[in-house]
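Tip: read the tokens left to right.
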């Protein structure tokens, strides 16, 4: 994900002490600037790089002492110096639409149903499983996630349920479900653009039985056979200020207010979708990722969404199901864990069948609109159609090997895959892309993310040796590959231990603004701009089941790549914007395949040669 605007610096975001994990320390300045030079050198000519060195030296003398001192003080004062800033900059203050760049989609494995009865059965099963997971998270009964031997902050799990990003002019507000005093017992089901309140827990916090949920869903179906002519939820897919204006107007009506508050307090949303077909040249899996990301446009299911809700389960008609998730409260791995849990429940048929029945009736959540709002609904629907038509997303599984192969070659699979991205990109564009890759900071209290940026000089050397003509001897390429992957892994560990570069630079920039200091020259430099214009935006979200997350590219010329390296296969979701013209998801998938095969071949040949010596 790309850094957002630097407005609204986050001082008003609620700070909560969520764990007894260590506080995020302020990174060391020397290390950050060394990384800056290394990443700059990989992208610059010798002459340009000399200029960058001058800018860095000036920064060290002129700006650094004051800024680092201020950051040190902030790090001492707050449980996490970064997270309040990050919440605002990456999310709440960003005015851009949630789909398709900010809000990821997630796709379950194909389940075995093809009728409306099956659709409701799976909607009930997914809902009940999610409710059980909610109770585990709420009652601190989830096993802590680990990074090696270090436990990770688990707060994000509690933020997933009952949470809504409320649109506000300038900066949105996040309302967490765990902050409500009253128990949350319902979900919201959307069908044909109509919203309904459906009960899923009883007064003793017991999940309702599958048949009790299914009966309510049948009622929803019987009351939503014709499309809602004014499905106002589509405006939640548009620019945040536009939606904030509509939201404020809607809430002035007392009945609307009640309906909207019911949506805000819903544990999650379930979208009962109509059938959809993949566009020509795309697979059913590609189509499901489109449904999960944006709903396929207004003729398909985009009018059947409420994008502010953290969790929306998307239930198709042909065995495909998934989720649209609003990113503000949590990263992908807790969402992946929820999806894995649901898959396990479905595989194990582990449902509450003799649980309580509903004690409240299904109620329709009517939201009345006026002519002006109806026009905005139409406009937002058109905007969504354009976005949906422009996004080229491909679900790609690499089958020749999985993370077992790099592991057997004593190479980090994640670093190996990142090098394959760089090589694939270079072969298409003859240049190296500034690359974003998410690293978790959840070893620290309230931790969110750092960017495992690449390429550095080691990665650039490897890629250039791979493509050089005449060919470089295979032993040299192998050495460069080992060096580049070890370097990437070392930087990954740095990032996860609060010694990454990106958030530190951001901190200096923000703290200068907050303290009315002049913005240091380094932040206006061409290289800083270039480094922050990502052409590959990537994220690993591993799961045990065949679950794939996806998101849109963070810039017009960028590739958005979410990947799930499993033991014997590597799953990728690759997205691009068609309107850019020079990128193509399918072409990237093809080059990625080739890169992965060529890299394996280098290792095989080089290690064979070595064993002969
Ligand atoms: N030799 C042999 N095996 C190795 C190895 C080497 N040199 N280096 C790593 N491995 C093994 C690891 O032990 C691990 O083994 P496992 O499969 O038994 O668990 C496996 O290879 C994978 O390790 P690696 O590929 O290095 O990556 P990782 O699993 O440590 O993940 C990150 C790296 C950066 C993705 C992870 O730390 C992270 O931060 N994840 C969060 C990302 C996130 O938040 N995404 C969502 C954003 S919305």
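Filled-in amino acids:
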């Amino acid at each position: 994900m790309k850094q957002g605007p630097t407005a609204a610096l986050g001082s008003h975001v609620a700070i909560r002490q969520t764990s007894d994990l260590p506080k995020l320390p302020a990174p060391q300045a020397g290390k950050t600037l060394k990384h800056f030079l290394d990443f700059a050198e990989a992208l610059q000519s010798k002459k340009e790089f000399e200029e960058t060195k001058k800018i860095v030296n000036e920064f060290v003398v002129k700006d650094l002492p004051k800024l680092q001192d201020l950051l040190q003080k902030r790090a001492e004062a707050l449980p996490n110096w970064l997270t309040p800033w990050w919440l605002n900059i990456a999310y709440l203050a960003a005015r851009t639409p949630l789909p398709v760049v900010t809000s990821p989609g997630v796709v379950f494995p194909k389940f075995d149903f093809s009728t409306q009865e099956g659709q409701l059965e799976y909607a009930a099963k997914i809902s009940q499983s999610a409710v059980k997971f909610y109770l585990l998270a709420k009652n601190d009964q989830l096993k802590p996630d680990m990074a090696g031997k270090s436990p990770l902050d688990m707060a994000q799990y509690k933020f997933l349920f009952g949470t809504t990003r409320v649109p506000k002019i300038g900066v949105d507000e996040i309302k967490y479900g765990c902050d409500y005093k009253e128990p949350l017992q319902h979900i919201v089901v959307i069908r044909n653009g109509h919203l309904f309140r459906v009960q899923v827990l009883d007064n003793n916090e017991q999940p309702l039985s599958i048949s009790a949920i299914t009966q309510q869903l049948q009622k929803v179906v019987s009351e939503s056979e014709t499309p809602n002519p004014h499905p106002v939820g589509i405006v939640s897919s548009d620019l945040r200020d536009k939606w904030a204006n509509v939201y404020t107007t809607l809430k002035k009506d007392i009945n609307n207010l009640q309906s909207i508050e019911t949506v805000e307090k819903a544990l999650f949303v379930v979208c009962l979708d109509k059938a959809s077909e993949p566009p020509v040249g795309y697979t059913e899996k590609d189509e499901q990722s489109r449904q999960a990301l944006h709903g396929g446009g207004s003729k398909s299911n985009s009018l059947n969404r409420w994008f502010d809700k953290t969790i929306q389960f998307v239930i198709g008609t042909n065995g495909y199901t998934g989720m649209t998730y609003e990113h503000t409260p949590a990263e992908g791995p807790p969402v992946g864990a929820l999806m894995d849990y649901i898959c396990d429940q479905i595989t194990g048929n582990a449902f509450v069948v003799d649980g309580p029945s509903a004690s409240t009736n299904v109620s329709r959540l009517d939201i009345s609109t006026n002519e002006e709002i109806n026009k905005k609904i139409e406009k937002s629907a058109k905007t969504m159609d354009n976005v949906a038509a422009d996004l080229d997303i491909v679900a790609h599984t690499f089958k020749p090997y999985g993370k077992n192969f790099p592991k057997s070659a004593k190479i980090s699979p994640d670093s190996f895959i990142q090098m394959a991205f760089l090589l694939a990109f270079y072969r298409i564009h003859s240049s190296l892309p500034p690359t974003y890759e998410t690293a978790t900071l959840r070893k620290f209290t309230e931790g969110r993310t750092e960017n495992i940026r690449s390429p550095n000089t080691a990665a650039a050397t490897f890629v250039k040796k791979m493509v050089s003509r005449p060919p470089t001897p295979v032993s040299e390429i192998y050495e460069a590959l080992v060096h580049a992957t070890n370097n990437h892994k070392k930087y990954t560990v740095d990032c996860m231990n609060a010694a990454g570069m990106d958030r530190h630079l951001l901190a200096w920039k923000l703290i200068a603004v907050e303290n009315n200091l002049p913005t240091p020259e380094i932040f206006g430099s061409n290289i800083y701009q270039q480094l922050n214009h990502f052409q590959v935006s990537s994220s690993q979200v591993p799961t045990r089941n065949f679950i794939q997350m996806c998101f849109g590219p963070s810039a017009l010329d960028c590739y958005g790549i979410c990947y799930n390296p499993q033991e014997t296969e590597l799953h990728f979701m690759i997205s691009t914007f068609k309107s850019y013209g020079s990128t193509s998801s399918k072409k990237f998938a093809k080059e990625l395949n080739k890169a992965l095969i060529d890299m394996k071949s280098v290792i095989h040949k080089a290690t064979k040669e070595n064993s002969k010596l």
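Residues 124 and 213 are 6 Å apart (CA to CA). The chain has a mean pLDDT of 95.
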